[in-house]
Amino acid sequence: MSTPLDDALLDAALTPHLERIAGYLRGARLAQVSPDHGVLRQSLATFMNAATPAIIDRWLGEIGPALGIPQSDWPRIKADQTAAVARWARHVANPRDVETYRYLSAHTRRGFIARFPASRFLAVQMRFTQLLAEALEREYAHDGERAAPLVRLLAQEFQERILHITDFFVQGREEELLEQEASYRRAIDRAPACILWVDANGAVLDGNHVAERLLGYTRAELAGLPLRELHPARERPRAEALWRTAIERGHASRDDLHLLTRRGEAVPVFANAGYIEYGHRRWVQLICVDISDRKRLESQLIQSEKMAAIGQLAAGIAHELRNPLAIVMNALYDLGQIIDTTNPEVVEDLRIAEEEIGRAQAIIKNLLEFSRESGAELEPVDVNEFLTRTLQLMQKYLLDNGVRVRTSLDPIAPCLANANAMRQILLNLITNAVQAMPQGGELELRTGVAPDSRIRLEVRDTGVGIPAEHLQDIFDPFYTTKAPGQGTGLGLSVVHSILRRYRGEIRVASEVGVGTTFTIDLPCPCHTDVVVET
Fold it and tell me: Looking at residue 139, what DSSP letter applies?
């Protein structure tokens, strides 16, 4: 059932349609019989209604088999055609009555007429009109003067009707195409991926909403932008190879590309390119899925696998080395008891040997941290107190290396943690920071409460910094950027291993020549009573 709003919209669309048809009829001089010729029009309308029952069965008997219409559908078609002729006759008698065309317009918009090919629909109506004209000529065979104007009026009305129906078909198809285009645009814009359209010259034609959000450009700004500028310089040959392969083979994909945002950030993407031809238009549709989360998970998995492998290796090596080192240490002790200890060179050699064996044992202890949990139980730990005591123990070491210390310790409730593990984290991070400042500098230590019931520790130095290409490797076992003899490459690996064990996180930010900041978040459910400052 239509509503007043539906009828108002229908009339609004019908008005320009009727104006178009009236203008065409005047321009083509097809309107030979005036709308005011009431007597002639009423005579034709009366004849159409009277003649339809006699000719409709013949008409249906011709078009049914010709078009393969099942006989079960004939009664419905007969009823529809009878009603259509009645509306047409009503319009012939009163051409200013637009109800017939309102009906046709409404059914076209609902897809009733549009479901049938226009040529077939017009052909069957033309045949019906021919049958009407033949019946009209037979009816007035004895009165040629009366028959001629009626036949002319019937032809005129049929031509006008064809123009109306054809216009409705075209209008309905245009609306359908516009709706399909709008639906396609909505689907593209709501797709969970960045979609770009690129022309044959490599220039962006358009993009969807996700592309705007991901890249930081508006669609107007994307239009005309060279695709290569959306990739880092080192990846542009690969990006162009993807685009060319899509044109040559129809489809191509890569997972080793990044898209550059307006701020210059590189977003890793899986790029899927497809070549599309439509009429004379050619373009490449590029679908880019942000895989930042996948890359991060892959990195974490690789790191976990490395740590597991090195843990197994370290456990075996450490146990094999401990016994020989213990024997050597005992032998050195015995030597110290029996040799001449008045010789300073001998004493110094023994001291160096013992010191190096102690260093080797410390390395073995670090290695064992990869393979087993520390034996210490969880206990309440005040991180601020631990940090203060660690700085006191390392005060001489810090002074000797010209390092100034600044602290900003916010109130933090004690947490359940492994004291030995916490001590090792602090020692390793502070030692690393000092070694990164060979000419001295400033070490800043900050603690505070982080969201999700976590505590945060920041260690910032003003040292030499870490090149960006090395940041992803600094937590790998035995990886170090220090000079030979200054580090084993295990300190940060041990820190990473301990934090992973306690479901903590460590992040690093560094700039060469400026310094490095390590940020650690540790889960601490017992400090939820501390208010998080936002």
Answer: H
Rounded to whole angstroms, how far apart are CA atoms 248 and 182? 30
In whole angstroms, what is the distance from residue 69 CA to residue 79 CA? 15
68 burial (CB, 10 Å; 0-12 / 13-18 / 19+) is: exposed
Please tell me the distance from the alpha carbon of residue 271 to that of residue 350, in angstroms, as a whole number: 64
The token pair at 417 is 């943690």
Q: Residue type for 227, please?
A: L
Tokens of 357: 């064996």
Distance CA 214, CA 184 (A): 21
Residue 213: CB partners within 8 Å, gap ≥ 6? Answer: none
Q: What share of the chain is helix, strand, coil (3-state, %, to 5)?
A: 60, 15, 25
Cα Rg of the chain, angstroms: 44
Residue with tokens 């000079």: 483
pLDDT at residue number 442: 92
Low-confidence ranges of the chain (pLDDT < 70): 1-35, 96-119, 164-165, 167-176, 299-315, 340-341, 363, 366-378, 473, 476-491, 501-502, 525-534
CA dihedral 210, 214, 216, 221 (to 10 degrees): -50
- Strand intervals (E) in 342-477: 378-381, 403-409, 415-418, 441-450, 454-461
**Nearest Cα residue to 228 out of 217, 212, 239:** 239
Task: Give the E-state strand segments of 263-402 in sequence order.
Answer: 266-278, 281-290, 378-381
Structure tokens at 328: 């050597």
Reported for 237-245, long-range contacts at CB under 8 A and 24+ positions apart, including other chains, are 239/271, 240/202, 242/271, 242/273, 243/198, 243/202, 243/273, 243/284, 243/286, 245/273
Contacts of 392 (CB under 8 A, 6+ apart): none
**d(C-alpha 59, C-alpha 492), whole Å:** 92
Per-residue model confidence (pLDDT) at position 111 = 44
